[in-house]
C-alpha cells in the first residue's frame, strides 16, 4: 500500500513538473492587429483581430474615439473616413491597423472623390461623348420641355457630328474636397453659346475660333472661344436649394426686381462665384443644376442664351436664358 501511494506521488510530481515546464516554454505571440468591419448605412460594426493585446484604442476618423475592443459606431455624416485601431500589449508594445471607409456617400463626396486616399488629386470629370437618352436640348422653362420635338435626345457625338465642334468634349473639370477647382481645356478653347461668344468678343474678352449649328438650326448657335482657365478657382456645391434663373417671359414662374425668372425647387447646384470659371458650356449662366450624381457619372442642366433678343441691357448686363442643355458627365480615370 505504501508503495502504491509513493508511486502515485511520484507520477503526480512528474506530471506537475512537465506541466510547469510547458507553461514556461509556451511561445508568446508578438502584438499584432487587423480590422474586420461590416457596414449598414452609416453604422459600422468593428472587430479587432489582435494577438496579445490587453487594450484597444479606436480613432473613427471624424474626431471620435473608443476603447472598446469591438465597437459599433454610427457616423453622423456620410463621406470618406480612415478608421484606425491601436492595440497595446501588457508591456506597452503596440500595433496599428487602419481601413478606408466610404460611408453613405453624400453628393459632395461623389463629386470630389476620396480625399483620404494617398496621392489624392481631386476628382476629374468630362462631358460624355456617348451621351445618354437623358441628354437633351430643352427650353429654360419649369418643365425643361424639349426645344425641338424632333430632337428627343442628343445622339452619340452630337456636338461633333451635327455641329462640327468635336472640341466640346475636350475640357476636363477637377473638383477638390477643399472647394478648389481646376479646369483643363487641353487646346486653349472652350465650348459655349454663340450669343455669349459674340458679346464677349465685342467686349474684347475672348476670340471666336470656330462656330457650328447652321445645318441644324439654320444659323450658327454654338462656338468655340479662346479661354485661359482661372488659377486658384473655387466652387460652391449646394445640396438643396430653390434655384432661380432669369428667363424669357413665356417661361417665367415669377419676377425678381422686375426680371422674369423660373425657379427650380429643392435642387442641387454647382456655382463658381466671383470667377470666370464654368463647367460644360461657357455662357452667361455659370451656375448649373445637378440632376443626378453617382460615383462614376453625373447629369447637369446648363443654361444658355441662344437669341440676341434675350439681352435686355448691356450696361449693366442683363441677359435672359432661353435654352438649356442636359448633359451627362463621366469620371476621367
Q: Describe it for me?
A:
The protein is mainly beta. It folds into two domains: 32-104, Immunoglobulin-like (Sandwich); 123-331, no CATH class. Helix content is 14%, strand content 42%. It has helices at 2-25, 107-112, 158-161, 194-202, 214-217, and strands at residues 32-40, 43-51, 55-59, 65-66, 72-74, 79-88, 94-103, 123-127, 136-139, 172-175, 180-184, 189-193, 208-212, 222-226, 233-234, 236-246, 254-256, 259-271, 288-293, 297-304, 311-314, 317-319, 323-331.
Summarize the structure.
With 333 residues, this protein is mainly β. 14% of the residues lie in helices and 42% in strands. It folds into two domains: 32-104, Immunoglobulins (Immunoglobulin-like, Sandwich); 123-331, no CATH class.
If helices are DSSP runs of H or I spanning 4 or more residues, what is the number of helices? 5
Taking Cα atoms only, what radius of gyration do you get, to the nearest Å?
32 Å
Secondary structural class: mainly beta
Span between termini: 87 Å
Tell me how many strands there are. Answer: 23
Mean pLDDT: 92
Ordered list of secondary-structure elements with their pairings:
Blueprint: H1 2-25, E1 32-40, E2 43-51, E3 55-59, E4 65-66, E5 72-74, E6 79-88, E7 94-103, H2 107-112, E8 123-127, E9 136-139, H3 158-161, E10 172-175, E11 180-184, E12 189-193, H4 194-202, E13 208-212, H5 214-217, E14 222-226, E15 233-234, E16 236-246, E17 254-256, E18 259-271, E19 288-293, E20 297-304, E21 311-314, E22 317-319, E23 323-331
Antiparallel strand pairs: 1-2, 2-5, 3-4, 3-6, 6-7, 8-10, 8-23, 9-23, 10-11, 11-15, 12-14, 13-14, 16-18, 17-18, 18-19, 19-20, 20-23, 21-22
Protein name: PKD domain-containing protein
Organism: Draconibacterium aestuarii
Domain PKD: 50-103
